[in-house]
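ok so for the tutorial part 2 we go from a plain amino acid sequence to predicted structure tokens. step 1 is just haveing the sequence, like this:
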Amino acid sequence: MKKFNLKKFNLKDFSLADLKEWFRKREIRRAEILEKRRNSEWAKKMAPVYTFLNRYSLLFHIVLAIVINLVIEALSRHSLFKAIGFLAGSPLVFLYNAFMIFCTLSIVYAFRRRTFARIIITVLWFVLGVANGYMLLKRVTPFNAQDLTNAKDGLSLITNYFSGFEIVVLAVGLVALVLWVVSMYKRGAQFQGRMHRVVALIGTGIFFGIFFLVSSLAVEKRVISTYFGNIAFAYEDYGLPYCFMTSVFNTGINQPNGYDEEAMAKINENDELTKSETGRATESRPNILVVQLESFFDVNEVEFFDTNVDALPNLRSMFENYSSGYFKVPSIGAGTANTEFEVLTGMNLRYFGPGEYPYKTYSKEKPTESAATALASLGYSTHALHNNGGNFYSRAKVFDNMGFDSFTSKEFMNILQTTPNGWSKDDILVQHMMDAMDTSEGTDFVFTISVQGHGDYPEEKVIENPVVEVTGIEDEALKNKWEYYVNMVYEMDQFVGRLRDAVEKRGEPTVIVFYGDHLPTLGLESEDLHSRYLYNTNYVIWDNIGLPKEDENVTSYQLLADLFNRLDIHSGTVFNYHQQRRKTSKYLEDLELLQYDILYGKQYVYDGDPPITEGHMMMGVKDVTLSNVIEVPEKGYSLYGTNFTKGSKVYVNGEKQKSTFLNNTHITLPETTLSDGDEIVIKQMGSSNTEFRRSNQYIYEDGALTEVPDTKTDLTTSWVHQQQEEE
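step 2 — the prediction. this is what the tokens look like for a chain of 727 residues:
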């Protein structure tokens, strides 16, 4: 037999008999290695342990499940004593979670490498505990299944949440964990008895069956709950395993009792919900601008510190002269997209799964009626803007499915000013909002999401001469956090003032709604606030059309219904429902039926004519153009044109080129060589290599560019098709 050399292996050099002989010898060597491992000193020492564990494995799994649960709760609560307190204070809940872990451990009986299988399952639970514990250091909302669906987008923001040192520690830790797991695969003992995999699987099924029965009983006896009014508090009350698994399997809206065509006909009596009308003449319909301010609230609400000057003078003036009040939001410290969803759709998130982001589970995939579709039916042009990535929270897909005409994300902005922790400052939004409104001759609806107030807030002093100084906090790290945040609020307020001035300069009838999406992640407790409520931020409705001042507190899902009503606008199924049924006895009960019918039911309310069946959105509102190309000896080429951003990438004959963005009119190509007939295209690229928009095609000939008209594509002809092909 020829000697086998893997590096020089050629199948033609070996006969079938040679290959069979090689595999036979390989199996012999493998058996010898395993036999040597079984007879090693380590194996002899561990043999009694393995025998004991195999004989009493179920008891061992019970103990292991309790230990795992205690460890992951300690990681989540950042304290072993708090985990023990959870065990002592809620023993039934603790044991229920331990039983869930025990059920997952029963899977090991289907494998011969049982020790290794136990290690894998244990490591997965520990990783879950570590992830949740770290998340709670950075924000108020704990780790849930929706974070996994956002993982790809979140990687682009990793430096906003992790310091360089933390990233290195994380990478080293992951590598070490993988190496240890691999080593345990090689070293771990194998079960030597006869395998009964069918019996093992049946046994696992029985354990899970008992678990589901116990779950039903636990819900019935109110040991656990299927509704989380506050997901952070729910994790504290019901434990990490149950809450996380609930966020995995409990999504969408379950069919409510009494749902049928007759019930929906009664709710939509005389088709009152699906009407679209307004008493305002076309020329008197105002522009409607809605601005969601990241982590914003009135800092004067906090009772334990003072500031040397008012952090929000522009908004304070608006609070005093225009309609304002507390704004009740669905989350604390995070969950921006959920506040957006409630505002844009008028739907109440309490009917969805705990911790669910409909942006990631429903609206990402399916058309969703929204304020954009409601106002478009009355002739409004509709635009969305966000000074963050277009793919984050799947907003590009979501806004397309919600019927917006355009979406301008940071890939279409030249962001020059950022906060000390890397987020875009909000001032850039003013010009882009004006640009969006300039694209239409009629009335506009503009929905804008800011990002400047985003955490994490630094414990060290990073603003040398802050405009707003904080006093009354003794802890230096906490003071630095609050001082940083308060100065971000001040700059957000300056943005609000500049936006108001820009709108007034336009001279068009306009209404602007400003509100905060949730409280900042600064460890606030209800007793720290004047309102004594952690779900309250603030809102104000500025206008130049003479709306009377009407102060009231409002929830995020009722905001636009109330505003539309004040403007004599009655459009959008859910908005009409709020306007007509808000003070009725079955208001919330029928709202659940309506939401289910629209999203997951048979859409009886639409009677075969839904307001949106597919999107038509364009990414950005300005074309990228090329005007000139200049060869720079030994330095490649310089491209000149308009509307370049850092998201602009150059493609020559379909191949991406190495390029350097200099400014909105100049990009260099340091390594490109152009030849006559080459085709040049500029693409606006988002995360995950997503093409949002492209320029027309340009042909390079004799050192000049010739534009090929009508070759550019936007979201509807390029990006959507690309996403469909990938999925």
